[in-house]
Amino acid sequence: METGQGVVVCQLRGKLKKGRATSDIAALGDRVVLTVSADGSGAIESVEERRQAIVRLDPRPQGEYRQILLANADQAVFVFACANPNPKLRMLDRFLVIAEKQKVPAVVIANKIDLVDNPRETFSLYASLGYRVIYTSTKTRAGLDELKSQLQNKVSALAGPSGVGKSSLLNEIQDGLGLAVNEISSAMNKGRHTTATRQMFALDGGGYAADTPGWKSLALWDTSAEEMDAYFPELRDLVPHCQFSDCSHKHEPGCAVLAALKNGTIHPERYDSYLRLRAGQE
Ligand SMILES: Nc1nc2c(ncn2[C@@H]2O[C@H](COP(=O)(O)OP(=O)(O)O)[C@@H](O)[C@H]2O)c(=O)[nH]1
Ligand SMILES: [Mg+2]
Ligand SMILES: [Zn+2]
Predict the structure, then answer these.
(1) Which helix (H) or strand (E) segment is 71 a member of?
(2) pTM of the model
(3) What is the span of the domain harbouring residue 166?
């Protein structure tokens, strides 16, 4: 646990472990009350109620278990590259839907803008949907101040495909930070016990950043096909205008979503993501 007096290795008090565990008792990002013994070891006495949590449902023989990827996250920061590797926008759409479902504000980082002529061509769509998009390059240092201030005094969950420049960006923002994050994620890729290596990193001037590599496998559990339109900002406002209240926006007459698709106010690729994610829940 990180405290004002540095890092303290803690055990959970037995009283916190009562009953069948259905979720992590203390997770990355939790705020806790702890006591420190004379030998420097700590004990977690209580865990503050979480404001918010990014959760993965883990099916186990004894019942569903809610694994907490990050507690009390203020924002999810999704990093993609403009090129090398090419942006996987269907993956970004999926991440954004998960963030909407889990009620964590999302920010998009378009990195490696030095490699393309017009980075906004690909990513301005997301700004038009209401997401903040920050255009960055660790080569030209474009956008790094903007990214730094976006992370300041917040708890951020970082995610994105490998090779997009997450570690490089963090290193540019703060010496040594990306290195530490990289070591953690490569240890996780080697399949070591994840909870033992999860860590968040204090930012100079306030705030924390945590690598949350679980997003790709984060199932949209607990989400029905019918509610999927609520997690697409450009769809959810149209839904009340559809003729049928249970409209699937696929073929129904009087569908406001299909009309918007036809007149170009909904992007066909976003609509494609909607269909795919919806189908995954059917
Ligand atoms: N051209 C270019 N290359 C970058 C940029 N940021 C990172 N890279 C390179 O992309 C590769 C992957 O970066 P890394 O930070 O390890 O990505 P991660 O897997 O997301 O942590 C490295 O070779 C970096 O030097 C950038 O803004 N522009
Ligand atoms: Mg990395
Ligand atoms: Zn409809």
Answers:
(1) strand 63-71
(2) 0.89
(3) 71-217
